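Subject: Sanity check before I submit

Could someone independently write out the structure tokens for this chain? I want to compare against mine line by line before I put it in a report. The sequence has 444 residues.
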Amino acid sequence: MPFLQLDLDRAENPLDIIERIAAHNRWSFDRDEEDEISISVAGGWSEYNIAFTWLAEVEALHVACAFDLKVPAARLTELASLVSLINEQLWIGHFDIWPSDGVIMFRHAILLAGGAELNGHQCQTVLASAVRACERYATTRLFNLSSLPAKPVPRRSARSCLKPKAGLDMEAPGVDRFDASLVLAGAGKMGGVMLRAWLGRGYDPRKISVIEPRPSPEIIELAQAAGFALAAPSRPPEILVLAMKPQNLDEAAAGLAPFAGPDTLVVSILAGKTIANIAARFPHATAIVRAMPNLAAAVGRGMAALVANAAATPGQRATAEVLLAAAGRVEWLAGEDLIDAATAVSGSGSAYVFYLTEALASAGAALGLPAGIAARLARATVEGAGELLFQCPESSVAELRENVTSRGGTTAAALEVLMAQDGLTPLIERAAKAAKQRAAELSG
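---
Independent answer below. Compare away.
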């Protein structure tokens, strides 16, 4: 999304700035009233409609964003229960089904107090946030949980929401690798997560074969709805993804070996299984990529560390990256010797954050808060901090911490304890070291 270079002067009516941004980007907009403007933005999944209303009497800006998606009539009834389930999980926004029009619509609205103080950069941030809300909830809340194929969305990077910076390009280059023949060996928890992510990003289900000795009812239902095969293919695929339980690799390898030909890219997400281990069990395969995804892939916010052997071509590395990026972000490691360290940070790190949340709730209860309230305060605080990290990628973690720390204030008093020589950092370092050592012990 190209952004207009604006000065920091505030306007009496922030809709004047919003209108200038829309005109600069050549977006279609309608402003029949002085206090209302509606903008249409072409997005990765649909056209996004963003409506702004200026409430001058309370100096607040109301922002509503929505998108709709055409759905075949035969699928509407099938998706009704899914949409109801998703709405129960959403903490913002709401999905509606309009059977007469064959449309699923997403709506989300917020009220920003102090709208008169918005400057040009902040107006652009509000607009970008509305677009990101549509993108994020289309991909992670609807399609990753359904079997409805859709085209892939380019990854978007948000400008810092705390420190305005000029010149934002929200588009990131993408590579489409969702048309290669693929065999998924193992459709358990993580395998199923990746499968749904690929379908949600538009992978042609006719190119996918799933080999799972004991498929769950959910996988069987997904196969029937999406159209991928729950059977082995007749020839080696271009991609073989190993996602069974690591302890089952030896048993499964003999049956899978015929599907790992010399031109097949083997992608392993098996914890503790080295590239050498994989190569020994699939002697005809040459290109092997080892990946370590984490739990957050289930909500489209995963982090995967990748390492490839020397035989993997740049094109095969790009293919592996796109496959793992369907469920979050990826980082390439310089060598396999770093995979255990990555496991200790991102593979196990979610549990550290969960435990920190437990500890924060326990501290609140020790200070006199009712246990339930303390737990809710701690959980919401960690959720909000994580969302700030996600929406402010150009602000370092230290900058975000400093922005909520006033000199001589309560946060500073707590951080003095946490940042002491025997505080949180050496504790986390010891914990990560223990995880790394255990990962090394389990490798083979």
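---
OP: Matches mine. For the report I'm noting this point. Confidence is low (pLDDT under 50) at residues 1-9, 139-176.
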